[in-house]
Amino acid sequence: MSNRVKLIVDKINGDQDFTTIKQAIVKREGKRSVDHATITVSAKHNIEENDTVSYMQDEVDTTFLTGIWNFQGSCNDESGNNFNGTGNADYRYPNVGTNIRKFAPNYALQFDAAGEEISISDNTELDFTKQFDIIIAFTMESSNPSEHFNGSSNTTQILFSKHDGTNGVEIGIKYVSSRWVIYAILDSTTFTGAGTLPYVSDNDHGVINQNNPKFIRFYRDEEFNVRLSLDDVLDGTNCVQTVAFNSTRATSTLFFGSDRTQLKDYDGIIHQIRIYNGSYLSEGDIQRLIHVAPQPMTVKFVGKVTKVQDNFDTKKLSCRGTTKFILENQLSAITLDNTITSATTNEPATHTKNIFDEGQTATNIIKTILYKINPNFIWNKAFTTASKVLTGKYTATGGFLNTLELLSTLDTKTFFTLPTKVLVYEKHDGVPTGKLANVAGTKNYTFDHNEFIITERGKNSVKLKNDFEIVGRLQSQYREQGFGNVSSGTVSTLSFVPDRLTLVDNSGTIIDTGYTIDLDGKEINWTSTHSGVTAKYWYEKISGSTSDILYYRVSSSSSNISTSGRNSKRLYIPQLTHRSDLVYYGDRLKTDLESTNNRYRLIIPYLLNSLRENHEITLNNTVMKFGSSTTVDTLVKSIEWRYPEGTTIIDCGEYDLGMFDMGANMATDITSLAETTTITKDSS
To answer: What letter would DSSP give residue 85?
Structure first.
C-alpha cells in the first residue's frame, strides 16, 4: 500500500521533492471548514513552514506516474508535474448523455466540435523512447461514423497524440469493416485491432460505442514488446509488436482529443488519462483500474505547511488547505476595482467595482468574483437549469465565503473546492453514484453493515433555526412629531423607535429635563409641564412592502416551534439591496434550517478513492434501521483518510456541529451586526 500514497513538496524557492509518507490524517471538510492534514515524514526531508504539500492517494502504484488527468472541471494534471492542459473542450455532467455507466458519478472531458483539442506543452518527462504505459478511459459519442461532427469521413479518431510525424505516440480508434477497433502508432509502427474480440451485445469486449466506457492501454516493456489492448484484452496479432527503444524523443505538443494535424478529431468523452514513464503497471494494477469504482481526484489535499514539529527521526507537518486563501478573500471596491458594462467570458456579470447591476444571476456573480480574486481558479457550474436572478443590485462585501453561502442559498445549490483549483457548484440534492431517477434496477454505491461500520446515527439540533430576523442596510428616515402641551403624568407615544431624539418646546428651546424615555415602548413619560412640544428624531424604515424596506421577519409553523422550541437567529445582509431578494433569502434559509437531517458516520477498512463531497450513496443496515427501512440514500459531507491504518471515515447526511462551531458562527454574526444600527426592533 505504501507505493499508492505519495507526498509532493513544492518549496518556496521553487524546488520540488517527492516524499515517502510515514503517517497521514487527511480531511476534506466540504462546506463546513477548511481542509486540513497532519502528515509525518522522515526527518531527513527539508520541509519548512509555508512550503506547499500535495497528498496523493491512488488505486495503483504511483512510483512512475508521470501524468494523470481526471477531468473534474479542469484539465489540470494531478501527478505533481503540473502538465496542465488548455483548450476549448467542455465537460459532460455526471449522469448525463453517454456518461451514465461506470464513470457516471464524475465529470468527463467532452469533445463535440472541431477545434476543441486540449494541448499540453512539451516537457522532457514526457518521454516515450523507452518503457512507458498509457491508459485512457473513454466513451465514444456514437458508433455511427456519419454522426461525427466532422462528417462520415472521420473514420480515424485520435484520443492521445504526441507525435512529430516520425517519432512519438498516437492512440485512438479506427472504423474497420463496419466496426470500431483500437488503433495506435509508436514512432513509425502502426497497431490496429483485428476486430476479433466478442462483438454481440453492449457488454462484450469488442463493442466500442456510446453505451460502453472502455479502457485503451498502450505500453512497452523492458524487452521492447509493445502491446495495444482494449479492457486489457489484445485484439489480434497486430496489437503485439516489437519496437526498439528510440534515441530521439518527440518534442511536439501533447494533444488530447485530436491528432497533431487536428484533422482526426475524437467525438465523445474522456474520463481519465494516465501516463507512466520509465516503467509500466503490473497486470494486477491494470485489472484493478478496470474494475474498481473510478476516482474523482488523485490528489486529495493541497495545502500550506503551517507548523513543523521536529522529532528525532521524523517531522510532523500541520497543514491547511490552500483553498482557505480564496475563501477568506475580503470583497470590496479594491478587490473588484474595474467596471464591466457588457458580459465577458470571464466576467459574465456586469458591475461597477463591487456593485453588481440589477437582474444578474447568482452564478454569473460568483463566477465574476472568482475570476477577479483568483483568475487561476476554475469555475465549474454543474447544471443546466436556470440560476436565481436577483431583482436588485448586489453589493460584494465581506468574505468571499459569505458571498458563496448567500448566493448558493438563493440558488438552492451547494459548492466545494477541488485540489486542482476548481470551485464546483452543484445541485444541493447531490450527485447519484449510480441510482438513476425512474430507471429500475439502478443503485448507488451501497455500503452494507456486514462489511462496513455504520455508526453515529442521529440528529444535532445545534444547527436548527426556526425564527429569523433578516436585516439589510436599513433606510434612515427623519420625522418631526408634535405632542402639543404636556404636563406631569402625560405619556406621549412616538410613532417609531427613535434614534438621535431631540425634544423642543414652542419657542424652539431644547427640553433636556422633566421626562424619561422608554425606547422599546416608544414612550415619553413627562414629569413636568411644557408647551408646544415637538419630537425630532430619526428612525429605521422597517415596515411596508416597498423595495427599500430591507427588513424581514419569518418564522416556521407554530407546530415546528412548539416541537423544537423557538430557535432565533438575526442576520445582517448588506449585500442584498432589494426587498424581494431579502425576503427570498429569508424564506430559503428557513427551509434549509427549520429541520434537522439525520447524520451517519461510515468507517471503511481501506483507503477509498471513489467518493467526494455531495456524492449520494446508499447505506444498508438491517439491525440499525433507518426509520421503517433498512436502507437510506444520503449525501457525503466530509471525508477523512488515515494512513498507514488504511481507513476512510465518511460523514454523511449532515455535519456534526458542536458548540464551538456555533460559537464561531455567532461571533461572525455579532461582528457583522456591528455595522448596522442596533436599535432595530420588530415593531413600528
So the answer is: -
Task: Report helix, strand and coil shares of the chain as percent, to nearest 5.
Answer: 10, 40, 50
> Which pTM value belongs to this model?
0.88
- 517 and 416 co-located in one domain: no
Query: Can you tell me which residue has the cell 483500474?
Result: 289
Residue 348, C-alpha cell as written in the block: 459574465
**Distance of alpha carbon 357 from alpha carbon 368, whole angstroms:** 12
Q: By C-alpha distance, which of 198, 153, 161, 192 is closest to 174?
A: 192
- Contact yes or no for 244/187 (Cβ under 8 A): no
Residue type, 441: G
d(CA 596, CA 465): 9
Residues 397, 439: one domain?
A: no
The pair phi, psi for residue 401, each rounded to 5°, is -60, -40
Give the CB-side neighbour count of residue 448, counting CA atoms within 13 A. 3
**Is pLDDT at 662 greater than 70 in this prediction?**
no
Q: Chain-wide mean pLDDT for the chain?
A: 90
pLDDT for 474: 76
Looking up cell 448558493, which residue turns up? 408
Residues 198-209 pLDDT 10s: 876 666 667 898
| Cα 368 to Cα 350: distance, rounded to the nearest angstrom | 9
User: What cell was used for 37?
Assistant: 492534514
- Pairing mode, if any, of strands 615-620 and 446-448? parallel
129 with 275, same domain: the answer is: yes
Angle at 224 between CA 218 and CA 228, to 5 degrees: 20
CATH number of 628's domain: 2.40.30
3-state DSSP of 555-570:
ECCHHHHHHHCCCEEE
On the CB side of 54, CA atoms within 13 Å amount to: 22
SS3 per residue for 621-659: CCCCCECCECEEEEEEEEEEEEECCCEEEEEECCCCCCH
The residue segments making up the domain with residue 501 are 475-541
Residues 233, 131, single domain; the answer is yes
pLDDT given at position 613: 95
Q: Under DSSP, is residue 305 helix (H, G, I), strand (E, B) or coil? A: strand
Share of the chain above pLDDT 70, in %: 93
Look at residues 141, 138, 159, 171 and name the one whose alpha carbon lies nearest to residue 271.
138
Residues 439 and 481 in one domain: no
Q: Which residues pair with 69 in a beta bridge?
A: 273
Q: Which three cell numbers stand for residue 564?
A: 423544537
The number of distinct structural domains making up the chain is 4
In a domain, 286, yes or no: yes
For Cα atoms 399, 581, 573, give the angle at the middle one, nearest 5 degrees.
Answer: 35
Half-sphere exposure of 305 (CA within 13 A, CB side): 25
Please report how the helices 579-593 and 400-411 are oriented relative to each other, as an axis angle in degrees rounded to 10.
80
At residue 31 the predicted structure's pLDDT band, cuts being 50, 70 and 90, is: confident
Does residue 388 share a domain with residue 331? yes
pLDDT per position as a tens digit, 152-163: 778 999 999 999
pLDDT in tens, 113-142: 999 999 999 999 999 999 999 999 999 998
Here the CATH number for the domain that contains residue 378 is 3.55.50.10
Q: Stretch 644-655: mean pLDDT, rounded?
A: 91
**Spacing of C-alpha 224 from chain mean position:** 43
Taking only the tens place, the pLDDT of each residue in 246-301 is: 999 999 999 999 999 999 999 999 999 999 999 999 999 999 999 999 999 999 99
